[in-house]
Amino acid sequence: MRRLILSLAALALMAGSAAAQTPPTPGETAGQRAARREAMQPPVLQEDEQLQAAIGSGTRPAADVARDAFRHPYETLTFWGLTPGMNIVEIEPGRGGWWSAILQPYAVATGGTYMAVNRPLESMGVADGTADLIVVARAFHNWQRSNPSRTGPYLAAFFKALKPGGILAVEQHRANEGLNAAVTAPTGYVSESYVIQAAQSAGFVLEGRSELNANPGDDHDHPYGVWSLPPSRVSAPRQGVATDRATPLTEAERAALDAIGESDRMTLRFRKPG
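Request: output the structure for the sequence above.
Response:
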């Protein structure tokens, strides 16, 4: 049903098929033969029905659901390693709470916990070393453009809150490599290497990178930054924003930006060693 799960299932079946062709060991006993055959059985992989239910819930706003085509919630959360019963912390979920509308009911349904944290340096909302998953979505550019010195202390706080083996999950608008974050962050983008270096400096290990949320149609260069694209759809210069173009969009420009869809985003999974 889902491409990621089907791919994993296909790999499992291939592994099982290969194991089935393994010849018996000469002189093996009946017990050894039974154990060998049991070991040959491919693993049964099931989709997370509770996660499907949270994503498909009628309580999610229609505008949120419409964005699923761009944000791939099931595949993204599966890639990040979300499992039932986790203690989840989401950093700066924002007014819309797009991820929280999925994560909070999922945590409740599976016996886990969910905590939204807006001021990590004041409190992470959990005891040190108890969080299983910390989600940071579309935030690195805000930290860089408002106060670059925050990023390091924030990541240190995340590291301290996670249990050994815990996961730091990142979704972030992605700038082209080689560009200075101080220049790109005001437009909403930072490079993947910038995020990776910052996380690694805090002690995290990069475990996975996914192109699930990549958008090759986004060239990262828009009249009013990433906010020119859906869902923000800014179409005229904003007061006091120096990086905005001085003139509003034409109808043709608005249509072209809408056709791009949401931004090109990195999707990263880091782990706290241990």
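The chain has a mean pLDDT of 89.
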